[in-house]
Amino acid sequence: MTDILASTPVVVTSGAPALTWSPAGLRRHGREHRILSGAIHYFRVHPDLWEDRLRRLAAMGANTIDTYVPWNFHERSEGDVRFDGWQDLERFIRIAGEVGLDVFVRPSPYVCAEWSNGGIPFWLSGRSRALRTSDENFLAAVDAWYDQLIPRLVPLQAAFGGPIVAIQVENEYGSFGSDAAYLEHQREALRSRGIVEMLTTADGVRSDMVEHGSVPGAMATFTFGTGVSRAIELQRDGDALMCAELWGGWFDHWGERHHVRSAPSVRETVDELLAAGGSLSLYMAHGGTNFGLWNGANHDRVLQPTVTSYDSDAPIGEDGTLNDKFHAVREAFAVFHDGELPPIPPAPVFQVPQSVPLSRQAGLLDVVRAVAVSATTAGPLTYEELGAEDGLVAYETQVAFAEGSILTVAGLHDRATVFLDDERLGTLERDGETSLPLPTVGGSGRLTIVVESLGRINYGPLLGEGKGIMGGVLVDRRYVHGWAHRILPLDPPTVVGSAPATGGSALATVELEAPADAWLAFPGGEKGMVWLNGFLLGRYWSRGPQETLYAPAPLWRAGRNEVRVLDTDQLGGVVEIRERPSFGPTEEYIGS
What we know:
- It holds the Pfam family BetaGal_gal-bd.
- By secondary structure, the protein is an alpha/beta fold.
- α5 (136-153) runs parallel beside α6 (180-191).
């Protein structure tokens, strides 16, 4: 690791923290220092590509990488904590150090990050209504998690020869709560387990956010797009100026436009902050992908699920390509280095474009009924009660109804496809239409409601809320009872059945001479999930803006590759393999 204002490597293993701060700025082992960081999330990048993306960050002129640590990514089932494979956080940190980068770790129980449930495990939020507080049950779960996590970070601190120079206590807490005892607990949870490096908090540029999100002993930092002057006004006595999230782009929700921010706009804010003596981390430097069903959601009068792509219009694209913003930031950062910046790595290699037919395998009900019933109860259970993290849950019962009856799903979270016997009646959606008419003549039949969680809320007062059918199902004013539940696995569907022309599963076979990156599109498809060689890439949805899914080279193999699709609404006929992404129509977003 090299101090940005000195050409001689500075490696100190005295047990003293690398960074100290004062209103005059940061110092690294006594020398003037700036954090020039960019965010890359190891959980959004295939492990085989970690080094490539980190080298691109170093070539951009960054001297630090920052990453969140999402708790639910490591402890999907209570007590089963994983730090291997894709969850090998220590390996990611060591690679960053080998590349020459310091590491800023943000391991709060809550990370936001447009990540499912803000990083809090669903099994915990399903039983606790006191998230991010000093509630003893919540803190007991946090402490058990930290007993697993923090000892892995301690030896990787700069004080002991590693690359970690800063640790965040909590994330934008001033936007959520006001429990000072909770923040104090989190600070001590780090210190008591051996963290000696600089502690920080991060909040927006509002006085109430800084007041409720700060804690003594941790340097308060800011999150903003253009709020340099306001951050200077709000800077606490004794703190150095730093933006822990300088928004150089923005994420996307389904049904909106793709958010972009121009290179000149980003450069202007970066230059303004650096001229004021500040440090920064560009959020995101490389966004990556919400593989699987890890995307979060917001709620602003209506549910706003985040798309699979987390490209965020970052300087380093989702597929590793570099844009004008990369070169603008590289130029801004270069003046803080004595020597030449690291070389820019070669561009990624992409597959030759082609169109491959999708072969229909089974209807949606065939896929559902191939799964064993997991619970039978009087009323419908939530995902949390069933132990279902995300994905699809099917609810089935026998129902009788009169002429002109209306079916209502109360508390639907989030989207439902409804069948009577084998006839599709339609779709329902939270914050939209949650009722539909039953056949006009009256009668009875087998009612199947296939519910999809579109993404767990990651920000705001609805953080931690449940999924599934939260209320009940009614025919007119009468509750329907006697429900069987099926939890659809997150494995690719392989059942062969009726293969109707509407929703269901399909298979495409792709032959390759050698693995390479690709973008996949599904023209004609309506609302589906996609697996590549058994790995769940994510979702497509015709409402956009995202039109392509990133399929990185490490997921492909020489020879035969399988692309499987499960569409709840309408299958398309082909898979298009493309060289470039399509994120849909754009709009400029700068942030405050």
